[in-house]
Amino acid sequence: MLGHTLARHRDDRVVAVDANIGDHTLTSRIKPESPETLSSLLAGLEQVSGYLTMRGYTSRTSTGLEVIGADTDAGAEQRLADRTLFSDHRLGQAVHLLDRHYKLAVIDPAAALAARVLPYADQLVLVVPASEEASEAVAMTYEWLDGHGCADLRRRAVMVVNGVSRRSMADVEQAEAVARGRCRAIVRVPWEDDLAPDGSDVVDPAQLRAAGRRAYLALAGVVVAGFAAQSVRVSEEELASDPPGTRIGER
If you write DSSP's letter for every residue of 18-61 in order, what string do you get? Predict the structure, then answer.
C-alpha cells in the first residue's frame, strides 16, 4: 500500500520488490503482467540492458506501481536458500539496478533475507499487527536491530501499527509505548476488510475507506520527509568536511 500511494501521488517510477514467500504476498494481490520473479531477475541480471528490459520483469498496477513478483511455487524456499543465486553480490547488483531505473524502491523481504538487504536500506518501515503480541514484537525487533549494528536505521524507522480498531486500542497503545522515543514516527493504519488475508484477491487502493487512504497518505508523507531529512544531514556533513576557507560550490 505504501508503494501504491507513492506511485499514485508522484511522477517518479516506483517499484515494489516482493522478496517474500508464502500465500499472502503482495504478488497475490495484483494482476500479474509478467511471469518473471525476483529469482529470475537475479538469474538474468546480465541481460538487463535498459529500462525496457527491466520492464519485462515487472507487473504494472493501475496506480503506476511496478511490482517484481515473489516466487510462490514449491521450490521457492529452496531457491531463497541458494547462496549462489541469492548471493550478497547478486543482491547488491539487483539493488543498484533498481537505483538506476527507479526513483523509489520498496522491498518486502522474507525473514531469511532481511539482514542481507538492510545495508542497502535508506529507511525502515516496521509493521506490527494491532494485537496483544505487538509490544513484544516491537521490543524484540528493536533489540535485534541494535544488536546487529542497525541502531541508526532503527532511530530513523517508521513504525506502522496495522489493522487498528476500537477493540485493539489497548494493544495499540501498549505497542506505541514501547516504540515511542526509539523510532522517528508512528503511524496507525485502520483495519481494512479488503486487505485481510481472506479479503479481495486483487486490491484496488481506490476502494479503501477514506480513513485508510488518509493513513497510507500520511505514511507516504512521513517516509518522503525522512528522505529529505537524510539529504540535509548528508549536505551538512559534506560541508563540515571541507577544509577551512573553502567556499560552497568550489569542489
Answer: EE--SSSSGGGGS--S---BHHHHHHTGGG--SHHHHHTT-EE-
**pTM of structure:** 0.87
Q: Which residue has the cell 532481511?
A: 114
Q: At what angle do helices 134-147 and 169-179 cross, to 10 degrees?
A: 20
Ranges of beta strands (E only) in 130-250 are 158-164, 185-190
- The answer to whether residues 21 and 232 touch, using CB atoms and an 8 Å cutoff, is no
Q: Specify the amino acid at residue 191.
A: W
What is the rounded distance in angstroms from the CA atom of residue 113 to the CA atom of residue 190?
28
Integer Cα distance of 151 and 110 in angstroms: 21
Instruction: Specify the pairing of strand 14-19 against strand 104-109.
Output: parallel
pLDDT in tens, 112-155: 899 999 999 999 999 999 999 999 999 999 999 999 999 999 99
pLDDT tens per residue, range 184-221: 999 999 999 888 877 778 888 888 999 999 999 999 99
